[in-house]
Design a protein that fits this description.
This protein is of the alpha/beta class and 542 residues long. It contains 17 helices and 27 strands. The chain folds into three domains: 187 residues, Rossmann fold (3-Layer(aba) Sandwich), CATH 3.40.50; 181 residues, ANL, N-terminal domain (Rossmann fold, 3-Layer(aba) Sandwich); 97 residues, ANL, C-terminal domain (GMP Synthetase, Chain A, domain 3), CATH 3.30.300. Helix 1 packs parallel to helix 9 and helix 12 packs across helix 13. The protein is globular. It comes from Aquicoccus porphyridii.
Length: 542
């Protein structure tokens, strides 16, 4: 198929075939954008020439510590310059980066370090106690620890460990990067934050990471020199591959340690931030910011939001503030965003209610995905695109993980039938746009009727007093399950359980209306996702 009758002399050579890798972006930017700002964090301001030199020193120094190609280097660092440098410096010595969630417990971190076999771990000073406790709990050989202090945030070096800047000083600025010989080589190992059992290690290859950086430039309608704010943690799908993407455009990575409405507004006003990604809870924080936290700015900020479908009420509230939000969707297993709600001009003049409902769609596949659709997981057939029939979102393409590390059984199950099974339930519209309904585990079955917690949450978010909500199943003797809403109120707002239920009843069918409303602060992950399993535990005690 697709071959000429005589292909003699048309083989791959060093001249016409180079493995795809995001490392190439920074090597190119070193020369083309040498004097342009690459990474900014308070007083830390590095050009691309300096950024490349620091990443090179890191690669060399890690090799000096005994890190060989194929080894794993872990990091437990917030969104700081050292974490951005690790994304290039670690693979530049042929190693695989394992960026670990800073909010995990010591036992889980111990498991990840042992399972991944990390040889070195870079640790932010604020998380030293966490990691040293994790290392103490390990049965496997302990990694070498390198401390990454952050004096600007009040975390000076303890003096108890090799410090990051001293490590860099040991490196050779002339070190020759070890580029992949095969684009299927691994570049990153990311552990899913599973709610049951041990987290699974998702393995990324250089090809998928590189293609994701190209595709998202198109999806985000980017031009040269964007200023990108690191809201998405770099330990979450490697920050959706955005830090790898920035050198492609000569963009500036603006690091943000603490994600607050004030820090976001300050970064936009002071650094001219043009883009950031984040969960809907981040948008909510911007919408509900106090007057003292807001700053004026004169440009539109482009936002990718994912992690949960954004409520139409949130989209309606944030757009007039100067933010253009694009709903994207993906998983750790798809390098982050893999679908987008690509906007069509004919939707511009629709009434607000319809327009924002469309904006909240899960959308269509991004350019690096070969196929993304809604299928029946039992028959592996396409469900009717009738805006009603439910199925499971499935993916096929170059931005799907290699698989789960040391877990061939889970990998085979995830790839059953030649597609990656997302576990997310959705419908598909006649124009092929998908709309996620729920995680399969979050759907509520009440009296035989399926209730989408996402739909109920979207209605409750329209209530003027509600800042944030989550709906989960509560066991019920008569109906099996009924919806229960957990609610956070806006500052200074008041309402009652009866009033919230009456509000919902006016917009939803009776079986979809919450039967109980609990006012409480919602448990959240480091990326702003609400931990529904914790809410279910609160209801059932298990």
């Amino acid at each position: 198929m697709g071959w000429l009758s005589d292909e003699t002399g048309l083989e791959k050579t060093a001249a016409n075939h180079v493995p795809l890798t995001p490392l190439s972006h920074l090597r190119r930017a070193r020369d083309i954008f040498a004097d342009h700002p690459a990474v900014v964090y308070g007083t830390h301001r590095k050009t691309y020439a300096e950024y490349y030199a620091r990443c090179t020193r890191l690669a060399s120094a890690l090799a000096g510590l005994g890190v060989a190609p194929g080894d794993v280097v872990a990091s437990v660092i917030p969104n700081l310059p050292a974490q951005a440098e690790a994304h290039f410096g670690v693979p530049a010595c042929g190693a695989i980066l394992n960026a670990i969630n800073t909010r995990l417990d010591p036992g889980t971190i111990a498991y990840i370090l042992a399972h991944g076999g990390a040889k070195v771990v870079l640790v932010d000073t604020a998380h030293l106690a966490l990691v040293t406790q994790a290392i103490a709990e390990m049965d496997a050989p302990a990694p070498k620890l390198v401390e990454v202090p952050d004096p600007q945030a009040g975390y000076p070096a303890t003096g108890a460990h090799l410090e990051y800047e001293d490590l860099l000083a040991q490196g050779d600025p002339g070190f020759d990067w070890i580029m992949p010989e095969d684009e299927w080589e691994s570049i990153a190992l990311n552990y899913t934050s599973g709610t049951t059992g041990r987290p699974k290690g998702v393995v990324y290859h250089h090809r998928g990471a590189c293609l994701s950086t190209y595709a998202q430039v198109v999806s985000w309608r980017m031009v040269l020199h964007p200023k990108y704010l690191t809201i998405v943690p770099l330990f979450h799908c490697n920050g959706w591959c955005h830090t790898w993407m920035m050198p492609l455009l000569g963009g500036t990575v603006v690091c943000c340690r603490d994600i607050t409405a004030k820090s976001i507004y300050d970064a936009i006003a002071d650094e001219g931030v043009t883009h950031f990604g984040g969960a809907p809870i981040v948008l909510n924080a911007i919408v509900n910011a106090r007057d003292a936290e807001r700053r004026a700015f004169d440009h539109v900020v482009e936002v990718f939001t994912a992690g949960a479908p954004p409520p139409a009420a949130t989209l309606r509230a944030i757009e007039p503030l100067g933010f253009n939000v694009t709903q994207v969707y993906g998983l750790t297993e798809t390098y982050g965003p893999a679908t987008e709600c690509t906007w069509k001009a004919e939707w511009d003049d629709l009434p607000d209610e319809e327009r924002y409902e469309i904006k909240a769609r899960t959308g269509v596949m991004m350019p690096m995905i070969e196929e993304s659709t809604v299928m029946d997981p039992d028959t592996m057939s396409q469900v009717p695109m009738d805006s009603t029939t439910q199925g499971e979102i499935m993916f096929r393409g170059n931005a799907v993980m290699k698989g789960y590390y040391k877990n061939p059984q889970a990998t085979a199950e995830a790839f059953r039938g030649g597609y990656f099974h997302s576990g997310d339930l959705a419908i598909q519209h006649p124009d092929s746009y998908m709309k996620i309904l729920d995680r399969s585990k979050d759907i509520i079955i009440s009296g035989g009727e399926n209730v989408s917690s996402v739909e109920v949450e979207g209605v409750l978010m329209m209530h003027p007093a509600i800042s944030l909500c989550a709906v989960v199943a509560r066991p019920d003797e008569k109906w099996g399950e009924v919806p229960c809403a957990f609610v956070e109120l806006k500052d200074g707002a008041t309402t009652t359980e009866d009033e919230v239920i009456a509000f919902a009843r006016g917009k939803l069918a009776g079986f979809k209306t919450p039967k109980q409303v609990i006012f409480a602060e919602l448990p959240k992950t480091s990326t702003g996702k609400i931990q529904k399993f914790e809410l279910r535990k609160a209801l059932t005690g298990s």
